[in-house]
Amino acid sequence: DGGIGVGDADARGVTATLFGFTVPNGTTPDGPYTLEVTSVMTAAFEMTRGDWTFTFDVPLGQAWRRGP
Questions:
Q1: Buried b (16+ CB within 10 A) or exposed e, 19-45
Q2: For residues 2 and 34, what is the distance between their CA atoms, to the nearest angstrom?
Q3: What band does 10 get if pLDDT is binned at 50, 70 and 90?
Q4: pLDDT at position 50
Q5: Residues near 48 by Cβ (< 8 Å), separated by ≥ 6?
Q6: Contact between residue 38 and residue 49 where contact means Cβ atoms under 8 Å apart
Q7: How many whole angstroms separate alpha carbon 14 and alpha carbon 7?
Q8: Is omega for the bond preceding 32 within 30 degrees of 0, making it cis?
Q9: Is the CB of residue 3 less than 8 Å from the CB of residue 24?
Q10: Measuring CA to CA, which of 19, 36, 43, 47 is 20 to 30 A from 61?
Q11: What are 29-49's pLDDT values in tens digits?
C-alpha cells in the first residue's frame, strides 16, 4: 500500500534499484519470498532473456528512514 522507489545510475557496469513499500496495519508479511527474473538489460540496452528464480526470507524490522 504505497511506497517509494530509488535507482542508482550505471556505476562500472552495475545498476541497482531499491523499492520500499508500506505494509498496511494488521498485516504481517510471511516468507519465504520468491523473486523471478525473466530478463536482464545492459547499459547499452542489450537484453538477455532467461529464467532465474531466487527464494529467500527477510526478517521483519523497523523501517529505515533517511534523516532530515
A1: eeeeeeeeeeeeeeeeeeeeeeeeeee
A2: 21
A3: low
A4: 93
A5: 39, 40, 41
A6: yes
A7: 11
A8: yes
A9: no
A10: 36
A11: 788 888 888 888 887 889 999
* pLDDT band per the 50, 70, 90 thresholds, residue 16: low
Cell of 60: 521483519
Residue 9: predicted pLDDT? 63
Which of the four pLDDT bands, split at 50, 70 and 90, describes residue 7?
low
* One-letter-per-residue 3-state SS of the chain: CCEEEEEEEEECCEEEEEEEECCCCCCCCCCCEEEEEEEEECCCCCEEEEEEEEEECCCCCCCCCCCC
